Amino acid sequence: MKRRDFHHLLQRSAVALALSPWLTAVAVPANKPRAWRSNPFALGVASGRPRAESVVLWTRVVFSEEDKALGDEALVVQVEVFTDAALKQRAQKVELATDATRGHSVHLHLQHLQPSTDYWYRFRQGDAQSTVGHTRTAPAPNADVRQLRLALSSCQHYEQGQFIAHAEIAKEKLDFVLFLGDYIYESSNVQYAIRKHSGEEAKTLTQYRSRYEQYKRDPMLQAAHAAHPWVLMWDDHEVVNDYANDQDRQHTDPQQVLLRRAAAYQAYFEHQPVLLGPDASNPANMRLYDQLSWGKLADVWTLDCRQYRSAQACRDPVRGGGRMVMQCDELSDPSRSMLGYEQERWLSESLSVSKRQWKLVAQATQISSTSIPAPAGRAYWNDAWDGYPEARKRLLQTVVDAKLQNVVTLGGDVHCNVAANLRLEPNNPQSPIVASEFVTTSITSRGLGDKPAAVIRDSNADLLHFRSDERGYSLITVTHNDVRCDFRTTKFPAGSEVSLKTQASYVVKRGKAGPQLI
Ligand SMILES: [Fe+2]
């Protein structure tokens, strides 16, 4: 393709994004140079959703009080894309308009790229210029790929530690960062704070925006975004703790929950390198669940465990949300779903036909059981897959029915490093191991105490590794022969000067389900 054609295609894609229904009303102003008093790109840059031919580039323009006084009307932002780190070979220059209705966020769905190729990018507005980001496209779908290397991460409560894990992630050689939710926390827990959220609990669009602004100003988080593309999924705290579809813990009117959720989803979209997804007309109904392939080596699914799920089983009538439940008949109701009918069907269909060597099923929480003995039977944590056992059975039955080997699930949310066997019947040695699970600990958020963690570990034979005391991320290396997980950690709370060590390493070998300690 000629460079001119390429340029036109890029412009078309940029305009197409600007014309999608939610993004209609930008009056494109003359791009008169503007003198900025403070850096409009103070939230950094990011790239995400890597595909063989495309990637999403992101930034958001922010205004100081002085800059706002000069007007915060619609702006045109230039995006420059280069094929070399020295920024000598400019492949493209695209102009995008943005305005206050989208928080002056900029999303460029950069298409018609080469597979397995590095790109560098930066944004300009007036006399200001952003830092330079690096990104890389996925391999071609039929490419023989030797390795996929990713950083698995989740749960970064700003108040509960420094983002030291991101400083290490930024320096690693990775294909992408896989972040599985709790990117922000809407609320505070002063008991464990080593630094402070600004503002009250986020409930409105303005409050969610300022929460993201605070997180995005962190230099270590910015470095991890500038270094690699990210593949993103949300969990509950991007909206409110333990929400389930249109339900929250306070049993608030579902219409009110949906309004809060819409504000939270819009702020999420405005701050991440993501697309609205097919058929979504605005961020309130964006579809974040997705699938990407990595040559012939791996298929990766990212599952949304919040937007469509049934409410938690046997909720407390006053304080709903997550809790330990026992003697709860609702658990065995087959109509209850973690993913919602549509997403479950989509996953089952695409998983069943996957021919790639490894099937990596990424979702926000933990699939293996953490149940404990109780006076009458066992008690189950109703917010994770233990609270949706029929849906878990259907997911694992799909693996059995399609005779799939080499299925590895990746999770977050529980602030624990977990390596586990997945069986149709959890903890039953007679039930075959059908898949393997790795769950990463939190970047910063406090984990379970040592005593309850020990009880859980001792009560579930499928848990080969279960440690909640340390913070960090997990390095996942996928090759033809195995999937390796290195739990990289430091003690709680994570300081800014510490370095991470390897807590433990596990491997899943081709053709043999179940992680093995290295
Ligand atoms: Fe969390």
For the biggest β-sheet, the strand order reads 5-2-1-11-10-9-22-23-24-25
Number of folding domains?
Answer: 2
Biggest sheet overview? 10 strands, mixed
Number of helices: 9
Under the CATH scheme, which architecture of the largest domain would be assigned? 4-Layer Sandwich
Q: Return the structural class.
A: alpha+beta
Radius of gyration: 22 Å
Q: How confident overall, as mean pLDDT?
A: 93
Strand content: 25-35%
What is the β-strand count?
25
Q: How would you describe this protein?
A:
- It is built from nine helices and 25 strands.
- It is of the alpha+beta class.
- The chain has two domains: about 5-135, Immunoglobulin-like, CATH 2.60.40.380; about 150-305 and about 360-375 and about 410-515, 4-Layer Sandwich (Purple Acid Phosphatase, chain A, domain 2), CATH 3.60.21.70.
- The strands form four sheets. It has a ten-stranded mixed β-sheet with strand order 5-2-1-11-10-9-22-23-24-25. A seven-stranded mixed β-sheet has the order 12-13-15-18-20-19-21.
- Helix 3 packs parallel to helix 5, helix 4 (about 205-215) runs parallel beside helix 6 and helix 7 packs parallel to helix 8.
- The radius of gyration is 22 Å and the shape is globular.
- About 50% of the residues are buried.
- Bound molecules: fe (ii) ion (FE2).
- Fe (ii) ion (FE2) binds near residues 155, 182, 442 and 445.
Question: Key terms for this structure?
Answer:
518 residues, alpha+beta, Immunoglobulin-like, Purple Acid Phosphatase, chain A, domain 2, 2 domains, ten-stranded mixed beta sheet, seven-stranded mixed beta sheet, 9 helices, 25 strands, 20% helix, 27% strand, globular, binds fe (ii) ion
